[in-house]
Amino acid sequence: MKTLRDRYGIVGVGETEYSRGSNRTTRAMAVEAVRKAILDAGLTAADVDGMMSYQNGDSTPANWVAPDLGIRLNFYMDVVGGGSSTEALIGLAMGAIEAGMCSTVAIFRSMNGYSEFRIGGTGVRAAQPVRGLDLAQVPFGMRSAGQNFALTFMRHMYEYGTTSEQVAHVKVAHSKHASQNPKALLKERVTVEDVVGSRWIVKPLHLLDCCLETDNATCLIVTSAERARDCRPRPVYVMGVAGRVNKPRTDFHWAHGPITRVAGHYARDIVFGQAGIGPEDVDVTGSYDAFTFTTMLQLEEYGFCPKGEGGAYVSSGTIELGGKRPNNTAGGHLCEGYTHGMSMVIENVRQLRGTVDDYCPGAADGVHTYDYGPGRCRQVRDAEIAMNLGWAMPPTGSALILRR
């Protein structure tokens, strides 16, 4: 398989506060996140000549953000998309650099996902005309993501005996991780009983099975390995990437192939084939947690456990800090903040650098205690390889493997 393994890296990361009311424009937030990522990389505005973003009609385009920072672009692109975009755009940035169109690319996502454009199925969004993929969903009562995905979740429970209590452990684990994260929106640890005792949203999803809605902007900077070695932080190299891989249908996705199958089934061989490793070699995962079930399904589909055993995997302690393979160590979308996927890549970059921002007294200097008690450390000891599993919906996903 053709691969660009280790030829490109992520050299800078940046983000704004995760809030429920930014009182700012997406343009202002994007500028802040991109600037922080440039500074994190030890670069200047003149070093960045490419910019990409993703949005759902809820953001500011790259060619408006760039001049606010004094950046003149040789390449830019804004794409429509959400959860599976981050990993895909990293691959596209690598391709743009490989083609000689630019040398260093800033990728950002900026969204007022709580105070302005909410992605649930209520309010202004629910009153919009029915078009596009909605034609495959709305006539059947599937206006929201939870309603659309519930078929896959319920079928998994029916076929494999997966229980709500098992999957609730995803929220429990991520809440523990968020309690170690100064910037997490929700830092309170919860129990399985808290999750299954919260009110129903759409069966089998309880309120605490669902992600947050937040205002925020995030940014990553991608460049060649040669340039990365001259940047300030330790380079984090891309071993493999798969972008927006689909099941045979993305509209009536439940009508083709097993209903419990999600896009990771098809992306798995691509990303592991490029990286030349297997699931057993991965130390840390960042699995998209729009819902507890999405994390469970992806970890299963990418081969971290056999098909049908995802419930047992996530409830075994494996995905918690101190476990064999911690997942979403900043708290993810369930607890830290909802960013349409980018924050989980940012967290894994910091994990591989050894520089997560936890409550350890020496965290700023990269000194961690590895004490995972409440309000303590969240740095994974000796993390060498991290993997991100992006999700848009059951039939569409992306993936990324990084190494130190």
What's the CATH C level?
Alpha Beta
- How many beta strands in the DSSP annotation? 11
Average pLDDT score: 94
Characterize the overall form.
globular
Query: Would you list the SSEs in sequence order as H and E?
Result: EHEHEHEHHHHEEEHEHEHHHHEE
What is the helix fraction of residues, given as a range?
A: 25-40%
Please give the radius of gyration in angstroms: 20 Å
Distance between the termini: 22 Å
What name does the CATH topology carry?
A: Peroxisomal Thiolase, Chain A, domain 1
Number of domains as seen in the coordinates? 1
Instruction: Tell me the CATH superfamily.
Output: Thiolase/Chalcone synthase
Helix and strand content put the structural class at alpha/beta
Can you offer a commentary on this structure?
There is one protein chain. With 404 residues, the protein is of the alpha/beta class. It has helices at 26-41, 62-68, 85-98, 123-126, 145-160, 164-178, 192-197, 225-228, 264-275, 292-301, 310-314, 332-335, 342-353; strands at residues 8-15, 50-55, 75-80, 104-112, 200-202, 205-206, 215-224, 236-246, 284-287, 385-393, 396-403. 31% of the residues lie in helices and 19% in strands. The strands form two sheets. Strands 3-2-4-7-1-8-11-10-9 form a nine-stranded mixed sheet, sandwiched between helices. Strands 5-6 form a two-stranded antiparallel sheet. A hairpin with a 2-residue loop joins strand 10 (385-393) and strand 11. Helix 1 crosses helix 2 (62-68) and helix 6 (164-178) packs across helix 10. The protein is globular. The model has no long low-confidence stretch (mean pLDDT 94).
